[in-house]
What we know:
heterodimer, A: 334 residues, mainly alpha, 3-stranded antiparallel sheet, B: 227 residues, 6-stranded mixed sheet, 4-stranded antiparallel sheet, 10 strands
Amino acid sequence: MNAQNTAQRRTSKTALKALNPRNHRKLLSFWRILKYGMSSFFRNAWLSLAATVIMVITLVIIAVTFVARQVMVDTVTEIKDKVDMSIYVKQDTSPKDIASIKASLLKLDSVVSVKYTTPEQFWEDIKTKYIDNADIMSAISEASEKPPIGVMNIKVKDISHIEDLTNLVNTNKLIKASMDENYPPSFSDSRRTAIDNISRTMDFVQKGGLIAGVLFIIIASLIIFNTIRMAIFNRRDEIYMMKLIGANKSFIRGPFIVEAVQYGVLAAIVTAVIITTLLVLAKSKLIEYGIAVGSTYNLLTTFWPLAVLILMFIGTTIGVVSSLLATRKYLKLN
Amino acid sequence: MILLDRVTKTYGIKSKPAINRISLHVEPKEFVILVGTSGAGKSTLLKMLTREEKPDSGKIIVGGIDYDDLKDSQVPYLRQKLGVVFQDFKLLPRRTVFENIAFALEIVGMTNREIRSTVPKVIDLVGLKGKEKNFPDQLSGGEMQRVAIARAVARQPKILMADEPTGNLDPRHSWDIVRLLEKINSYGTTVLLTTHNVDIVNKLKRRVITMEHGKITSDQAQGWYKQ
Lengths: 334, 227
């Protein structure tokens, strides 16, 4: 009995070894998976169209979220840059003291650069700036004398973080002595509150935009996942049949992944066309409203092949992951 | 060729066994008909042979392979060695007759040249010459079953399992299918056929195994069946 069992076991092992003699033809299998995936895409035309449309919607949401966020960041940066950060020094401050004040300011972490404008130049700058504004020009011409101050214009990294600058201005003896008491720094007292308010609002807009963007991307990914899942659910009998006649997992799953890649590539191209058209049409109007769309527009038009590739990558990744997850369920059982 | 030794399968904890300690031996080139009412355990038995189901206990050996030694990853390769035909044909709906049969050959890694030479031969064997480019929904039930049989035998399996292949067909087409199975058997393929059809069983005069409530109640060399 034992000898019979041993013989049977040996026969079984030999038979098992002989099960898959042609498994080495991986390239041929890969080619066939590609062929099946591409033919399925066209033979299931309606399903493919529906999945591609949903994928386009997904990618448009993602792209609009990205563009909107970028435009918002640029706009916020522009607004922050426009906030005047200056201290005003007396006319008679010596060049040596001005150089010393500049050096002290530049030592601060929050300060990027400092530009000093003499009282004469400051006066000329005002006149040039408001040359088209009749009311201001009339006020300037009526003024008996120009303000006796030089302007130290300070460029900071972030208007929300200027504590060290405020401290320095309040404590540094040379700065305090050089400042004209009639002209306090542009970022002090009530102006400081206004700057803080602008800063807080901009931070909120940026963070809110980021959260909304992440939410949109999650929702859009879920929509495309469900669409692909339903498309695969409709073809579960096909998967079952393939399993029963001996197709291995990669041969069954492969064509679905190829189809998902096609949805992603096609949808990326359509999305790129939609987004570019929208941006071209809306550019001038947005600029009119003071929205800084220029740099994003230039970025997208200069690097459009990269933008299309990124969209393709996002589309195919979402599609392939959805396909992998959706087919997993039907491939589980023997 | 097929050996079952005290095989038991139960679905759920409290239910009665679908297969209850069945032992069975089928020789190579035999034509065996498995009969029994619905729920007798015929389909479960075939499912265990194709490894769709695992037995709770007992031993199954098919074509020398002991299923206890079979890993899950090897199951597709086992199935590639078996021919299986179903009552509902299970054809790929968006592929032509040629492509349905070719698919079974592509998954075993046959070259395109081998496929181009094999598929017309099996199409000829099952009598579907001229229907190569038809899609399943352009065929009758009998023709679809012929495609399923062609797909099952294209890889020249040693064993062909047909689970109620005539269940959805009228008597004339049913006999066409049975004659085709006999022809395939005459080429040396072991055929395991499950059916309800009394007329077919009684006229074939082949080995008939009757199942009831998961057990084999009779095994006749040239048997007959009465419902």
